[in-house]
Amino acid sequence: MTTWIFLRGLTRESAHWGSFVADFERALPGHVVTALDLPGNGLLRLLPSPTTVAGMVAACRAELARRGVAPPYHLLAMSLGAMVATEWARVAPHEVSGCVLINTSFKPFSPFYQRLRPRNYGALLGLVLRPQSPEQMEHTVLRLTSHRVADHGADVAEWARVRLARPVSPTNALRQLAAAARYRAPVVAPLQRVLILASQRDGLVDVQCSIAIAQAWQVPLRLHPGAGHDLPLDDGAWVVEQVARWVAGGDGDGHPQGDAQACSGTTGPG
């Protein structure tokens, strides 16, 4: 059995994976997923969010130990969650067999205006500091993270129910933002087995961030031509296909490449 740990991004929780977890397990028999919430989110919303990515890693490792979920793990993570996965692989490489990182960004590879596109600053601050109804807030999140807005009406309704039941406090949202902004990734890949997936039309984080990481680390990169920041939401089947190929040994030469032509570099909701 292969154990996968799934991690979401800023202020998002395991419920936001939707049907993707079940689709993933169905497509990869013998692979079992544990979707973790970062402290301050989801079932852990009453805990203070660590102000460092290293603190989030420690919390995740402690939670898995409490549940009796033993390593080694494969990590699949988005955005802020991908920072956590990277740091996890750096500090405890004996626990991590591989990482799939989706639409993330790190210092020192990309400037701040690529890591979080400036045109989104106002909307993101509004989510934290000027909360509206759950439905309005989730429509804003969808607009920022998807290029298939018209297809996700049911998702918005479910996300609004999740937000109402398990709201993330403004303080915890700001603490997560601080952790993401200050995180600095290793300049070399923390593991041999890393796959980077990125959306060429990501409106929140510039795709150049993923390209820069793949080039610096010399790990495979797969580019989706049309999805938004929430790639598993916009095209979960494509994500599963890329992971299945990678697990089976595809892209094992360690050279970045994309489904579209490969390019020669603070995350938002994920």
Could you please describe the fold and organization of this structure?
By secondary structure, the chain is α/β, with parallel strands linked by helices. It contains ten helices and six strands. Helix 2 (53-67) crosses helix 3 (80-91) and helix 6 (134-145) crosses helix 7. The longest helix is centred in the C-terminal third of the chain and has 17 residues, at 231-247. The model is unreliable at 251-267 (pLDDT under 50).
Keywords:
alpha/beta; 270 residues; 6-stranded parallel β-sheet; single chain
Continuous helix count: 10
Let me know the largest β-sheet: 6 strands, parallel
Total DSSP E strands = 6
Ends apart, CA distance between termini: 27 Å
List unreliable stretches of 5+ residues: 251-267
Mean pLDDT: 89
Beta-strand portion reads 5-15%
Helix/strand-derived class? alpha/beta
- Radius of gyration equals 17 Å
Instruction: Name the overall outline.
Output: globular
* Helical coverage, percent range: 40-55%
Q: What order do the strands of the largest sheet run in, or round the barrel if closed? A: 2-1-3-4-5-6
Helix-strand topology string:
EHEHEHEHHHHHEHEH
List the helices and strands and how they pair.
Layout: E1 2-7, H1 20-27, E2 31-36, H2 53-67, E3 73-78, H3 80-91, E4 96-102, H4 112-115, H5 121-129, H6 134-145, H7 153-165, H8 170-182, E5 194-199, H9 207-217, E6 221-224, H10 231-247
Helix pairs in contact: 1-10, 2-3, 6-7
